Please model this.
Amino acid sequence: MWPAFWMLGNDITSNGWPKCGEVDIMENIGNEPGTVHGSLHGPSTIGRTSSATAPFSLPAGQNFADDFHLYAVEWEPNTIRFYVDTALYATFNSSQWPAGGTWVFDHPFFIILNVAVGGHWPGPPDSSSVFPQQMLVDYVRVYAKQ
Model:
């Protein structure tokens, strides 16, 4: 399983991916139940995409699915910070963006919450996959700095 909270640039229909940009607020793949990942993806002149990613892990033996958690990003013009339960675990700046890539996190994005079954990263479902699955979300909030 592959639950995720993420955002895509609202210009995806005109610019496509990865030129529109992608912000992965939280991704939790099935074989890492105690770890989530926060990532940025954008276009690269070197290859298909430039990316920046960071993991956050709970203490040994704890799984994210066992309780509610807060996932957040603070997004400023040249900086995006990632949090789990108020703990800052990653900061990405435009000045640190991979060489050959373009920082495209300067326009509106929309939010997606989904649970994927399989995929390139987690691989296909196998005999250890449990069905049915669900993702419980208590709330989603968006704040704007005034």
User: Anything to note?
Assistant: The domain at 2-116 is CATH 2.60.120.200 (Jelly Rolls). Residues 115 and 134 are 8 Å apart (CA to CA). The chain has one domain: 2-116. The chain has a mean pLDDT of 93.
